DNA sequence: CGCGTAACCTACTGGGAGTAAGTTACCCGG
DNA sequence: CCGGGTAACTTACTCCCAGTAGGTTACGCG
């Protein structure tokens, strides 16, 4: 590697497409994370790559395409991490626990950029929204699978609803965790698994004024 | 156009500031809801108001300011609706139930624009993010209050975490509900309250392989 | 009736997304 | 070593839209 010396100025290093794309995704993820999608400019991303703007368009088509590519890469990484974590589990509860820890750890390490993804989905075109939604679907499938194992007696609509609940709760929890440095990924995972397992019941008063007959009825 | 306009040419009605502002907010809420924040153009909003763009800037300062004003108005409305609903309740469970129904009903009726708010928070400036976050804080306060009543024995960190969980779950549930016409606001509320009350425990297998000693530990 | 002011306008600037068309460096077969 | 083909890269634009400067009209009111 004679010319691979890390010198930013003067000498422009010409890169292979694959390498340049990877670098662009790294830079884009960072810039999007710093300013948010809308405020990030393609010129800035190009400049930080040491390259001119049309290259970005050559490789990713549009600003939106660049975001989609970032999302897609993260999605793959997240899926990989969570699946690997869950594969090591034995009981359903353990699956849930390990999955949650993996999820919160992942977001913890990618916090800035991933928080952006969670809050800024529909940036411009439906394309982006679709990519983010695809990530959710992927996670949903995973969760729904766990739920089905966890609760084989639950009807489909309840599984679906609870999957959504868990998705939303996890995302909010992740966002909250990034703003609370004293809350570790394990803490977040524990809150989630505890809540999923029993809800509020551990804290209910021992003699609750809860006539089950007239309460908003049981899940059918 | 060839003069086929349904309204007479001199119809340019001059309005009081208050009335015009209200109209602008109505139109903006609709346009933002239709296209999303980023894709919505100030020119279109102005045109639909039958007014020119600088008027919008005169009254709201910026595109962002307009969004913030929309959010603020919706926030007040939502708070009003949920508080009124909860005031009529008797037991803590009833509070939760009524609050949830009110929340989902509100979003159901404002679906397009409110879904936009839920998914598109950090549009441009921190100002907008702040306004949306303020709405969340308001709701969080409400929820945390209910939780404290519901579960007086729960420690503060659990209350905080569970509040976030419920917030996130509700938002996701609301989004899901808008895409599922067969799910009513009451259905959504029922899923939520059931999950909050007991989590997954009703569906757990009667003889669960759950050694509590090594399981991710209980909420402290 | 005229005068102050608030509602409203036309016509512009500026910045960033996206593009057309040209230039340079690297690889590879003679 | 040498051309030439192609992939990496550039300059220099266009267009669209947020935001603005400054002027114009209509309404209330003394």
Task: Tell me what you see in this structure.
The structure is a homodimer of 220-residue chains. With 220 residues, the first copy, chain A, is mainly alpha-helical. Chain A has a domain at 71-203: Orthogonal Bundle (Tetracycline Repressor, domain 2). Chain A contains 9 helices and no strands. The radius of gyration of chain A is 22 Å and the shape is elongated. Chain A starts with 16 loop residues before the first helix and ends in a 22-residue tail after the last helix. The model of chain A is unreliable at 1-11 and 207-220 (pLDDT under 50). Chains A, B: This is TetR/AcrR family transcriptional regulator. Chains A, B: Residues 41-60 bind DNA. Chains A, B: Residues 18-78 form the HTH tetR-type domain.
Task: Compose a concise summary of this entry.
Chain A is mostly helical. Chain A has helices spanning 17-35, 42-49, 53-60, 63-87, 92-109, 111-119, 126-150, 156-178, 185-198. Chain A has a domain at 71-203: Tetracycline Repressor, domain 2.
């Amino acid at each position: 590697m004679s010319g691979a010396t890390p010198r930013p100025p003067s000498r422009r290093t010409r890169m292979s497409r694959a390498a340049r794309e990877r670098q662009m995704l790294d830079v884009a993820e960072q810039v999007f994370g710093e300013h948010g999608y809308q405020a990030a400019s393609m010129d800035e991303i190009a400049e930080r790559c040491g390259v001119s703007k049309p290259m970005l368009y050559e490789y990713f088509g549009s600003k939106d395409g660049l975001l989609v590519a970032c999302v897609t890469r993260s999605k793959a990484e997240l899926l990989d991490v969570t699946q690997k974590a869950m594969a090591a589990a034995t009981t359903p509860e353990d699956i849930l626990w390990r999955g949650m820890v993996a999820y919160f750890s992942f977001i913890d390490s990618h916090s800035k950029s991933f928080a952006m993804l969670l809050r800024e989905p529909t940036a411009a075109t439906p394309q982006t929204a679709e990519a983010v939604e695809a990530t959710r679907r992927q996670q949903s499938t995973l969760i729904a699978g766990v739920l089905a194992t966890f609760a084989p007696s639950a009807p489909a609509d309840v599984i679906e609803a609870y999957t959504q609940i868990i998705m939303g709760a996890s995302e909010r929890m992740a966002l909250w965790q990034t703003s609370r440095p004293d809350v570790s990924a394990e803490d977040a995972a524990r809150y989630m698994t505890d809540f999923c397992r029993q809800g509020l019941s551990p804290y209910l008063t021992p003699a609750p004024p809860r006539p089950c007959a007239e309460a908003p009825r049981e899940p059918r």
